[in-house]
Every structure is written in structure tokens, then in C-alpha cells.
Amino acid sequence: MVDVFSGRLLVNKDGRSVDPEEALQNKVVGLYFSAGWCSPCRDFTPVLCDFYTELLEETQPPAPFEVVFISSDHSAEDMAGYMHAMHGDWLALPFHDPYKHDLKKKYNITAIPKLSHKDNVYTKSFVTLPITQLSHNSEKVLAADLKKSNTSSLLHYKFN
């Protein structure tokens, strides 16, 4: 996934610039297409926050996973407010970066929220999952191959 953001900067929740090559290297990366004005997005974002927290803060060692938020908010201020109010400690493409339109087109994002992921380590095909498939059925799982001690393990995380 690092190559998707090659030559660009990402920002963290506090607005500081982050080098994607350093931050995303050897990680499974989820692209989260969302906006604060979107009611289904506001319903799903806490679920994604819990998932992210479980992966990074409640497992030892922390899973090599990162989320990059791609905003559909109406302004930079709306995006910042949404990130501070509801998001986990993940990264984002800056609001004014026109590349977000290319990403939406490239990955056929026609509605939000959408969480997309690609395994950067094993170069799996890109998968886009409608959020309704994740959040409305507790039996649906998001499976991610995560690199751990040079071996792969398939971890399943349920969305309730």
C-alpha cells in the first residue's frame, strides 16, 4: 500500500505530516472512505475505532495494521472535527489533496462508508467491502493476513 501514497504526505489526527513510506511499511492498510455528515459513517466509525484499538493496543505484539482516512467532508474544518470527535489514532490523506478523487475512482467508491484493504506484505488483490456487510451481520468478518515473526497468520475480527 505504500506505493499508493508514494510521493505524498499523510497527516495524523493532530494535523502533523507523516511520511507514508515509514508509517505504512510492512503493514496491512485499510483505506476508510467516510465523512462526518454521513449518518452511516458516524455509525460505523466507532466500530472501526474498536477494531483498530483491539489490533494495536490490546494484542501483543501489536498487529501491523494501519487505517488511512480518505475524507468526503465538505471542508478541512469538517474533516478535522470529525477526526477529533470520532476517529481512532489513524492517518489521513490531507483534505486539499486532489488525489482523494483519484483513489475514489481507482477503487470504484460510489458510496460511503467503505473500508478497503490490501495486504501490503503479500500483495493480495484489493478488496472493497460495503460497510453494511460488516456492521449489520455479526457473523461477517474482516479477515486480514498479518505478518508476524516472518510467518503469516489469518486473523478474523468480528464486527458487531
From TrEMBL:
This is Nucleoredoxin-like protein 2. InterPro entries: RdCVF2, Thioredoxin-like_fold, Thioredoxin-like_sf, Thioredoxin_domain. Residues 1-151 form the Thioredoxin domain. The gene is NXNL2. It comes from the Eukaryota. GO terms for biological process: photoreceptor cell maintenance; sensory perception of smell; visual perception. It holds the Pfam family Thioredoxin_8. It comes from Patagioenas fasciata monilis. Gene3D superfamilies: Glutaredoxin. Coiled coil: none annotated.
